[in-house]
């Protein structure tokens, strides 16, 4: 049985909170510091990417766009030197406000599962969560996460990846084949997923079942592992079976 989503308002509350936390972390930080979880980025690049994504989502929702909005048409694309944190937060606040005003039932383009404002509310919550974690890793803060939101993050990534028209998973084709099934299991909140390879890519099922390998731990640890955001030195969730199997799945499900 598929997981029940949080409410539209809960997602937007999470998005707003994580954006504020990321902006606070950036205040006074070295914007040239390398982001450990995104090796090609400095903190400045992380702030620009996140702020642009907020503005792009806002433009998509504000237009009630029926197709993808080109980034060149997104307004306010210049991140001011010395005002990076405020620029990030302004983009988040505008987009959260637009999604609140629209409500969860407006049809609008999205890159997986038909989009819609409900889908974008969930997406912006997890975009904000993951990039807040990136900022924490950059400045040396141990990332924490609400357990229910962390489990929902796992489910959001897996369900979006299961839409084979979604192009954000550029390595998903590596999962095509047979064998090497994977079970993911959260131990502190409900959340169990079964992933099986197919000729096209994979199938996603819910509940407990035997697999070739398993990843088991708190929702926080499984979420950080799946997103490639475990802090250096943390053991992360328990892994059972052949070590290469979880690594195969994590690489194939990488969101780009």
Automatic annotation (TrEMBL):
InterPro entries associated with the record: Maleyloyr_isom, MDMPI_metal-binding
Cited Pfam families: MDMPI_N
Any one GO cellular component localisation term in the record: plasma membrane
Coiled coil region boundaries: none
Domain Mycothiol-dependent maleylpyruvate isomerase metal-binding stretches: 15-135
GO MF assignments: metal ion binding
NCBIfam families: maleylpyruvate isomerase family mycothiol-dependent enzyme
Protein name per the record: Mycothiol-dependent maleylpyruvate isomerase metal-binding domain-containing protein
């Amino acid at each position: 049985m598929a997981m029940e989503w949080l409410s539209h308002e809960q997602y937007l509350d999470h998005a707003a909170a994580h954006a504020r936390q990321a902006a606070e972390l950036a205040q006074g930080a070295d914007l040239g510091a390398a982001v450990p979880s995104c090796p090609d980025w400095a903190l400045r690049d992380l702030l620009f990417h996140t702020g642009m994504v907020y503005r792009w989502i806002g433009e998509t929702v504000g237009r009630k766009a029926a197709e993808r909005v080109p980034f060149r048409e997104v307004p306010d694309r210049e991140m001011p030197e010395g005002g990076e944190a405020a620029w990030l937060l302004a983009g988040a606040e505008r987009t959260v406000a637009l999604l609140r005003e629209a409500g969860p039932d407006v049809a609008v383009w999205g890159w997986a599962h038909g989009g819609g404002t409900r889908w974008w509310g969930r997406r912006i919550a997890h975009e904000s969560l993951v990039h807040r974690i990136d900022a924490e890793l950059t400045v040396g803060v141990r990332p924490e996460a609400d357990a229910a939101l962390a489990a929902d993050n796992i489910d959001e990534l897996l369900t979006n990846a299961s839409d084979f028209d979604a192009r954000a998973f550029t390595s998903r084709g590596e999962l095509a084949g047979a064998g090497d099934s994977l079970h993911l299991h959260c131990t502190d909140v409900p959340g169990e997923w079964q992933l099986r390879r197919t000729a096209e890519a994979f199938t996603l099922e819910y509940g407990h079942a035997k697999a070739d390998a398993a990843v088991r731990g708190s929702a926080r640890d499984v979420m950080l592992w799946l997103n490639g955001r475990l802090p250096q030195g943390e053991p992360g969730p328990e892994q059972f079976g052949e070590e290469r199997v979880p690594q195969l799945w994590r690489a194939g499900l990488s969101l780009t």
